Amino acid sequence: MRIIDYVNFDAIISLMSENPLVPNLFFAITDLDGRTVVSTRWQRVCSEFHRKCPGTQSLCVKSDLVLASRIKEGHAYALYSCFNNLTDAAVPIRVEDEIIGNLIIGQVFIKQPDLDFFLHQAHTFGFNENEYLSAINAVPVVEEDALRKLLDYYSKIASTFGMVAKEAYRYKQITDKLSRRTAELEYVNGELEAFSYSVSHDLRAPLRHITGYIDLFKRRCKEELSPQGAHYFDAIYDSAQQMGVLIDDLLQFSRNGRAQLVFEHVDMNRTVREIISKFTESHPNRNINWHVFELPATFGDQSMLKFVWQNLIDNSFKFTRNNEQASIEIGWLPEEDAYYIKDNGAGFDMKYANKLFGVFQRLHTSDEFEGTGIGLASAKRVVSRHGGRIWAKAVPNCGAAFYFSLPGKDEQNG
Amino acid sequence: MVELKRILLAEDNAYDVELTLEALSESNLANKVDVVKDGVQTMEYLRYIGQYATRERGNPAVILLDLKMPRQDGLETLAEIRKDEKLKMIPVVILTSSKEERDLVKGYELGANAYVVKPVDFSTFRECVKLIGGFWAYINELPPEKS
Questions:
Q1: Which of A54, A74, A130, A265 is 20–30 Å from A46 (CA)?
Q2: ipTM above threshold 0.85
Q3: Could you give the residue ranges of the DSSP H alpha helices within A73-143?
Q4: With bands split at pLDDT 50, 70 and 90, how would you rate the model's confidence at B147?
Q5: With an 8 Å Cβ cutoff, are A213 and B15 in contact?
């Protein structure tokens, strides 16, 4: 597609043909190859006589070519009286530094027509004399000076339309590029999808077999196993299990990065309440002081945001395990525009805060607190994809606080 | 005595077959378990075709169906079972490695009776298989079978 193809011809025709000075002025726009892309108000003398009859038509074509070549030579405009004695004028249509086509107006007489000449034409080419002369009489007479002014004015209009067309052309190029990129991304995403599907199936199976056979061996062939051997088997079993957790977490991480976000109104109070009640149900022995304050609603992906809370609450839950009296506080910090969760658990050294949200990064050993180092990375990914920010403050052995802000705070429902 | 209905295990991986059979054997089920290796064999078994032409008559009490199998996978097999007038009421439990949401949705759409993700931890897996076997072989009331 070329710029000229984006010109709004309907608008240009209606604007140009409503010229009150010369209401029936012919005009046309040709592309750089000389093809007419739009034309209107043909003079009958041209369309029904000169261009229909082979003898006169050759004269029309000749004058088209002369006009076009003059424009090509770089003339600002060309005025040309055709061999059939009518005058056409042409200007290049410039958009910035580029010529996108030519504007032609004309099919006019620049002085009163010589009727004898046309009578002669009628005889030579066998036109019906009366009809031919009435067509000649309909041709407007526009003096050369006026024709130039009209041409000048029309070319400005054409350039303006050209400018708009160029914008449309650029826009189309950008959207084309975007849709190509989108298609590529969709393809890559599909590949990733297939890959992670295969991982979740095929990588877990051997782990299940390892733990399965160790379990069987330990129960069926106990007597063949020394305490040392039993320890080795325990290590293998634990490792296989740990790898299973890792695979699940990694898959979740990758899913959080790829899955399409479905934005909707999210009641954060309810989300948090649900998670906490599940926790307390499944861990009746943990004694935790929960302080949950009113949370504003937001606009985001319900399940993804639930995942974020799940991870943060999970963390606080885990790292307060050794506290005699664990305390977890959840609330909203207006000055930071952020949700927060604070605990009095193990905390961490702020020196390593930059590692907190990295994949596979851990600030505690597995002996102290189990984990894969993916949870917070995954949470950060979700928050980032919502256009938000997540950060933390902590003091070792005194607790940690996590904050996250989301730009989509639901104002109406908040 | 009426012969107890069989349990059909459709699973291509030999280790999974062995471990599942071990777990089932620990649940003291009196039902015999037959094993098929993929969807094609599952259908041959159910329709008494080829090597299964002379097997005992009757639909299994339950089919434990793996999803990822060669030739014809679990979901394709489930779809075929549900389209077959004689087979469509057999309880089918999908027993698979992964909790992929699209498999879950597709499985239930096609009319699975249950969807179980095999846990990596074997003791949990064992408990799981025991529960499934016990429920479908003892507790569950089977649909009447047209002959």
A1: A74
A2: no
A3: 115-125, 129-138
A4: low
A5: yes
